[in-house]
Amino acid sequence: MKIEEILQTIKTFEETLKRYKSDLEKNPGSTFYSGLVKNTEEYIKELKGELKQQKLDENIGKVFTGNGKKINEATSTDLPIILKLVNEYGWKVGDTLLYQQIYDIPENLKRDYPNLKNIRPDIVLQDLNGEVLAVIENNLDKENKDLLKLRTVITHLLKPRFLYACSAERILFYDNAWKGLDAGEFKQVTNFMSLEEMRLKVEQQKKIASNKEITIDTTIAGGFDPTIGKERYYQLQCIRTIIENYKAGKQKMLIHMATGLGKTRTAVALVKALLGSGLTKRILFVVDRRMLAKQSVDDGFALISREHTSSWITTSNFRARKHASIHVVVIDTLELIHSDLPSNFYDLIIVDECHRSINVNRKLIFDHFLCPRVGLTATPRIVTAKEGTEVDEEDLAIIDTYKLFGCETGEPDFQFDMDRGISEGFLAPYKPIELLSSLVQEAEENGITFDHVLEPQEKYVIALGAEKKLKLEQLNRKFISEENCLRIAEELKKNTQYGEKVILFGVSQAHCIELAKAINKVFEKDLSEKPYYAEAVISENNELNETLKAWFKKPYQKPYVVTSVDILSTGVDIPCVRYIAFAGLTKSVGKYIQMVGRGTRLDPKTGKFSFTVLDFVGLCRRMEDNGKGTLKENKKIVKPGNQKPKVPGTPQPKGDYFLIDNPDPAHLIQRVEIHGDTIIVKDNIPIEEAKRIFEEELKKTQEPVIADLKEKAKQDDYQPTDQEMAKLLDWLSKPNTFLDEGHLQKMYDFPEGSAWDFLLHALGKKKIPTPKERIEKNYLSYIHTYNFTDEQIIVLKKIKDVFTSNLASKRTIDEKEIFGNPIYEKLIGSYNDINKKFDGKFNLVINDLKKTFQGGLYH
């Protein structure tokens, strides 16, 4: 059929389909009418597919190149690329896209290329003035020769900014503006650029070359700060350093700036300078927690929102918000969506304290994007493992971070650490006080021997059947001492004034809950209404925690003490905090500095010019920290009290302390109702029960807003607006659900998801990706990011299923296991043949794949 006939047939059958659907509504459950509807829909789908192919064929037949050669005479290799450039990127054949155009070698180049009279590139992309922007060679049979041809004669003659080399499996890309170490090789990409995108890159490079002075807004960073009465000159130095490095073509940069010195404001001023000068169009700001994403948009980039739009992007909105100048994203989310974004999408990536463990190696995610990257960190030094010793995982992540940002030597591009910040009066000095209970001393020196514990609720004795010994590092992880929590609470009361703000770091969620209970027992008389004197902040996404943190920021409002494992160790700006307290150990120097840094901000409004570290486990001593500029360590031994819980009818445990099993709140969902300054805890329910409530309420609700969203969810790839998302979250928080987005992420074990993702999942419209599906997507990203040959890519695709299945099932895998099955070996080839294709290094590729995908998905 011709195109006109197909269009008319589609129209006729669409009218017929409407009648069949109407008949089906009148006769629900009728297999006759449902069959008619299904068959008609399938036929319309076939017709539309045929229509699409007819239009493509017609386009191919119409277009010509500048030398008069018809595109439909092009090779089968060239045609798909040409159609992709025309249909997806807007290039026009014979106008901005030239096919096999002939270019004569000019006299001044004949000496260099005596054997060539002319060249005929496969595809040339040019602007409307005829200036060549890119050349595409579409045959990599002789890869080295083809790439050399692009880098030499084609570049010398046509002077294109961009070079592409394509094959059946790859698109290789090179930018002639690249400088330094990154200028050496072609890089694999998954996309081309449009004319507009190429012109923008060219204009940006011209502005860089012009060396025009760039204005920095000192009202945001680098100017006079009335809080401390002087200029924050170091912020200005930092911004200028990064801009100069960016203009010089440096691809990896690191800023080491201590907590409290204004990294976020420095980053905002840097972004404004780069966007305002035209050196960049779109910047990505990466954080490691949702709380920090919200904070970055609301408190950071809001400072420049009039000039440059910023948006927090998620799995459900990133396509709709692609035009914002500044994208803020959580690293978990970026892991899911990075391969859906073009490699050239961003001009700069700024990464804020991203030490968090995620499902794949951060290197893969950042290497996908072909743009400079800047890391921000408050960690003062690299920690390396001595031979035969172990290094804490967080410190290993910090080492990786330094490597990710080109700082393997430990020398960042700009440095202003805590020592210097305190010395120059930009940060508050501190004094550590060690307060060790006899239990902690015993655990540290000899370990605690015990053969029973107390049941957490009823406090009856549970015999363990054999003696156990706990060292201090293990105390309060699997077994918690209630008595020691009470000792800490009593010492807090002795060493602080009522109402002073304290952040107390524990070792687990359950430990933090017990610490808060003990503190409230000591400080509170009336426990009828939340917030209490002390609250546990143990889950970053929970609406309750967001509310508690907002209240904790206010100097004269409860809670006065918050207990936390690590949610409050980074990215929390609470200047009025006067005490940092440690009830748990860490081996990580980086984490220790981060935790101490929560207290270093000066706060003249509340009269805070210094702070105190209360150390209940000897952590400061272990870190060899005597508090710069403070008095010598004030060491004190805390004796345990005589209080013992009385349990009628049960034997009393011996000793001056009690150990209880560590209950795991991670398997419960705490539902709360918040009204103004009042918090009512509704219940703590199992995850499966919370899922059932959410899914049942969603399906049966007739509330207009949610009913409308459920209808829109039927559309393919519908993107909800900000207002619709706000209404969905509001509905979630009300009876009968009492849930929030964080609860849903915990319930479905999908921290990257948005409320919209969970709505689609619950309605059966779009299932949350399984672990295997998530690995597969990043596996394909891996083989299309790094420099593999076509043959190697084909092999890696063939082993994808066995590799990802093993990882998703938490099983180990090596090259011998892959080839251990004779049937599988027959499908993909022998190990020796495959190993030859990888130059004898196939085992190294497998090991690198395992390293890339051994992240948090399998914890």
UniProtKB/TrEMBL annotation:
<keyword id="KW-0175">Coiled coil</keyword>
<keyword id="KW-0067">ATP-binding</keyword>
<keyword id="KW-0347">Helicase</keyword>
<dbReference type="Pfam" id="PF00271">
    <property type="entry name" value="Helicase_C"/>
</dbReference>
<protein>
    <submittedName>
        <fullName>DEAD/DEAH box helicase family protein</fullName>
    </submittedName>
</protein>
<dbReference type="InterPro" id="IPR006935">
    <property type="entry name" value="Helicase/UvrB_N"/>
</dbReference>
<dbReference type="InterPro" id="IPR027417">
    <property type="entry name" value="P-loop_NTPase"/>
</dbReference>
<dbReference type="Pfam" id="PF08463">
    <property type="entry name" value="EcoEI_R_C"/>
</dbReference>
<keyword id="KW-0378">Hydrolase</keyword>
<dbReference type="InterPro" id="IPR001650">
    <property type="entry name" value="Helicase_C-like"/>
</dbReference>
<keyword id="KW-0547">Nucleotide-binding</keyword>
<dbReference type="Pfam" id="PF04851">
    <property type="entry name" value="ResIII"/>
</dbReference>
<feature type="coiled-coil region">
    <location>
        <begin position="3"/>
        <end position="57"/>
    </location>
</feature>
<dbReference type="GO" id="GO:0004386">
    <property type="term" value="F:helicase activity"/>
</dbReference>
<feature type="domain" description="Helicase C-terminal">
    <location>
        <begin position="471"/>
        <end position="658"/>
    </location>
</feature>
<dbReference type="InterPro" id="IPR013670">
    <property type="entry name" value="EcoEI_R_C_dom"/>
</dbReference>
<dbReference type="InterPro" id="IPR050742">
    <property type="entry name" value="Helicase_Restrict-Modif_Enz"/>
</dbReference>
<feature type="domain" description="Helicase ATP-binding">
    <location>
        <begin position="244"/>
        <end position="398"/>
    </location>
</feature>
<dbReference type="InterPro" id="IPR014001">
    <property type="entry name" value="Helicase_ATP-bd"/>
</dbReference>
